[in-house]
Amino acid sequence: LRRGTMFFARVLRCAGGKSRGPRAPSWVSSSGSRFPPPVGLLPDENARDTLMGLYRAIFVALEEVPAEAKYRVNVEKTISHRMRLVEATEDLLELEEKLGLGKLEEVIEQAKDELQLVPFMTEHQPWKMQDGSVATKTQLKIELID
Amino acid sequence: HEQPKATEGESKLRRKLCAVVGVRRRMIMRTARGVVARGAQLWRRYASGAAGGAIKAAEARTPATAHGLKRAGSPTTCSTMPLLEQQTKFMSSVLEMIPAWITRAQIQKAHDITHNGGEMVLEVPTEVTAKVLRFLQMHTNAQFKCFIDCTAVDYPSQAKRFKVVYFLLSVKYNARIRVQTYVDEITPLESATRWYPGADWFEREVWDMYGVYFYNHPDLRRILTDYGFEGHPQRKDFPLSGFVESRYDDATKRVVNEPIEIAQEYRSFDYTSPWEVFPEGGRARDFLPGTSSSPSSSEESGDKPDANEAK
């Protein structure tokens, strides 16, 4: 049995490309060069699954927001675009490059923040105008001052 | 994890490994599948090629970043949109998302040719300052997670005389934004420390210097003025030299605060001449129009050098 496992370990190592040490964590770049995230964020092997879960949760949370509110429309646009990319790409490094938003762990942080923001917005409802209706057009113009 | 169904290549490899090693089949299946799957992945990436990947990435990228700030600095996401346009797009998206929370939106110094864009400024009602800050902090297209400064300005001619300004920075998008409110002496503002702990001392300074109260602040007390100091020094109606002066009193052997005595007369500059005009003084009145020719008192002119020395 032991002879068998040693053989498999060797097979895996050959298939993986560069060999990791026996105790090196899995995210140390052995295939491709996906380097760990900045200090403070834990590296996530299953970043895609985490992201998809968070994005689905954001969609669920957004159901509290009225459908015509621009906040919901914009967030859905952004999140669905990211979801499409995450679903389409399997390789994590490629996904990072496609998203162009930094490390995947940072993207996870952004999703968590948006997920925290949605109930905050639902509570305070800034899209509601004076008469209680949902604002569809902004009356304000952006002043460009010199 | 959904494992892909075993392909023919996989079963072939599995059988081969079984034949060589003779270990239990289940174990081989798990590892062999992983090996073959990884190989297939690598092959796919190699086969699709760098060019194809980049084009797909570019196509995928355009819809999302249409409403807002782009990540600067990264070569793959370097935007071709000028900064002013980015800022305008971002401001309009913020305006349409939180219309009830904004009274005015500006981009100042918009057409300054030295810089690529202007300075984004949002004016908000007094009740929602902290909420707007939270939104800007947390929203994906904003992410102004860095608190830079909180200050105030006094416009005594207005009823709401104090303009309280918050400065934020987004490191991810390399963008800055100002959030400002107009508030009078008695209206309290919600403290930003709930979302930005770094706002602590800045709000203390605004309280100390202007008298703007922040509720829900963990520790709102004076920060720059002396203990027991009365007044808010940066208000425009607070004189430059203040109301009290300190001196060491030998009788009581301690420092005492007494009402200020300014021995020097108030110096007024009307800028009609480059030199300071002393109405009671000597020859300037002979040459300058409008100066009164009252008799000069030697006492007053004598006092002036002393006062200057003391100052």
Q: Could you please describe the fold and organization of this structure?
A:
The complex is a heterodimer of chains A (146) and B (311). Chain A is an all-alpha fold. Helices cover 54% and strands 3% of the residues of chain A. Chain A starts with a helix and ends with a strand. By secondary structure, chain B is of the alpha/beta class. Chain B has seven helices and nine strands. In chain B, strands 1-2-5-4-3 form a five-stranded mixed sheet. In chain B, helix 1 (8-21) runs antiparallel to helix 2. At the A-B interface, helix 1, helix 3, helix 4, helix 5 and strand 1 of A face helix 1, helix 2, helix 3, strand 1 and helix 4 of B.
Cα Rg of chain B: 35 Å
Number of E-type strands of chain B: 9
The largest interface is:
A-B, 61 and 64 residues
Low-confidence stretches of chain B: 49-66, 72-78, 294-311
Q: What is the chain-wise order of helices and strands of chain B?
A: HHHEEHEEEEHEEEHH
Q: Quick one: overall form of chain A?
A: elongated
Mean pLDDT of chain B: 78
The termini of chain B sit apart by 79 Å
Order of helices and strands of chain A: HHHHHE
Q: What is the mean predicted local confidence, pLDDT of chain A?
A: 81
* Proportion of residues in extended strands of chain A: under 5%
- Number of distinct beta strands of chain A: 1
